[in-house]
Design goal:
Layout: H1 3-24, H2 28-38, H3 42-61, E1 66-67, H4 74-91, H5 95-103, H6 110-126, E2 135-136, H7 143-164, H8 168-188, H9 200-203, H10 205-227, H11 237-256, H12 261-268, H13 274-294
Antiparallel strand pairs: 1-2
Length: 302
């Protein structure tokens, strides 16, 4: 009898997470594009808020963030981060943005997660990489210090807001919601992450499916509320191939790090893992180099 209330709670949290991802129009690819091409750093600052919110939740509950599979050695971590960055560029969005785009009616982003799923599913069968014991560490700072850091980051973004005209309140509320809800989900379903939201069905079948379906549903509802209309955009063969290829590259990178940009921000950063810092830095630098060289059409939608 206890399984159904638990699944219902996971479903509600998944729905709320999808709603916030679409509502905030947050994505590492969008943030990097705005930084490189428009010199607008506000969305990068907002991503830091997510990590701080996650740290506050972990520290307040006195729970140590845990990576389901220990961090890879540096020799594998570096190419994995670059591979993941290449996947986000090919895909046109990171995992945050892919969920948000789906809500906007861009259903070709389903193939991004199918590509990720394929990688995780094959790994579950043949073991592409050796699996390490889970890595766990307490949050190095207390909730009060983290709250002060968060307040400073919000003030910084507020100062930037006057020059960049980004939607300050919408982004602030969305970042808080994403940081808190993601962390609660990671605590309740330890093997869950957005990167493996479809891939997690391999390891936690029922919970993974419930969270994933409700997350995509929340993104759809958010777009409907925001636009007051909804229109599906049917995929072309080119877009299907692009999303699938991007998803496969992202899946391979996330499998090797382990974790995508969501796990690095929401789990690796709060635990103070230097591996997460290096991986995310390489991800952003590689993505910035690709955008500077080839351009990017990624733009926020709210």
């Amino acid at each position: 009898m206890q399984i159904w209330p638990g699944l219902a709670l996971l479903g509600v949290l998944g729905f709320a997470l999808g709603f916030a991802l679409n509502h905030g129009s947050i994505c590492t690819v969008i943030a990097t594009t705005e930084l490189v091409l428009e010199r607008r750093p506000t969305r990068f600052v907002a991503l830091a808020e997510c990590a701080l919110w996650a740290g506050i939740v972990y520290a307040s509950l006195e729970i140590s963030p845990t990576v389901r599979n220990g961090w890879s050695p540096l020799g594998l971590l570096i190419p994995a981060a670059i591979l993941f960055a290449s996947g986000t560029y090919v895909n046109g969005a990171c995992v945050f943005g892919s969920v948000g785009h789906f809500g906007n009616g861009d259903i070709d982003f389903v193939f991004t997660f199918l590509g990720i799923f394929a990688v995780f599913y094959i790994d579950s069968i043949i073991g592409v990489l050796p699996h390490h014991p889970p890595a766990s560490a307490p949050v190095p700072l207390g909730p009060v210090l983290l709250a002060l850091a968060l307040a400073a980051i919000v003030v910084l973004r507020f100062g930037l807001w006057f020059r960049t005209e980004s939607n300050f309140l919408r982004l602030t509320l969305s970042m808080g919601a994403i940081g808190i809800i993601f962390t609660v989900l990671a605590i309740l379903a330890p093997q869950f992450s957005i990167t493996a939201s479809v891939g997690s069905i391999v390891s936690i079948p029922l919970a993974g499916a419930v969270i994933s379906v409700c997350m995509f549903g929340g993104s759809l509802v958010s777009a409907r509320v925001r636009k007051r209309r909804f229109m599906l955009k049917w995929p072309t063969l080119k877009s299907v191939l692009r999303r699938t290829a991007g998803g496969i590259l992202m899946g391979l990178g996330a499998l090797s790090i382990p974790g995508g940009n969501d796990a690095l921000l929401m789990v690796g950063f709060p635990m103070g893992a230097w591996q997460a810092g290096i991986a995310y830095l390489l991800l952003v630098v590689s993505l910035a180099a690709l955008i500077a060289k080839f351009g990017s059409t990624a733009r926020s939608w709210s």
